[in-house]
Amino acid sequence: MLGRLSVLRVITICSIGFIFLRIYQHNLVIKLNYDYQRLDKRKTQLEKERNELYTQLMCVNDPERVLAYATMQRNMRPLKVGQIVCLDDRKPFDFVGTTSNEVVVQQLGLFDMVLGKTGG
User: Fold this and answer.
1) Structure pTM?
2) Of the candidates 16, 28, 81, 95, which lies 20 to 30 Å from 120 by C-alpha distance?
3) Cα angle 63, 69, 71; round to 5
4) In terms of Cα–Cα distance, which of 90, 83, 84, 86 is closest to 110?
């Protein structure tokens, strides 16, 4: 009789433990579903915001809209060919990496000015 009671206790304890484990798993599944719904809602909000920003960007970058804004709001007009003045007829040179600073200063005609200011 005593052996039977200890076996029954073990079975009861294991059953109660199993029930608590299933309740815990069920709560975890419910929590994960809530998290999933919250993240899905946030994703939808972010996609909507992205689409609105993209629409605004396309409106801002529209050349016709920029021209209309410049002429109406800022009173700007496109330049005519006669309004364009070339200030220097020297040949272009490379500013990036292949030309030394001294050569650039000489080509710009600033060498004497630089020497005058530095006292060289």
Assistant:
1) 0.45
2) 95
3) 100
4) 90
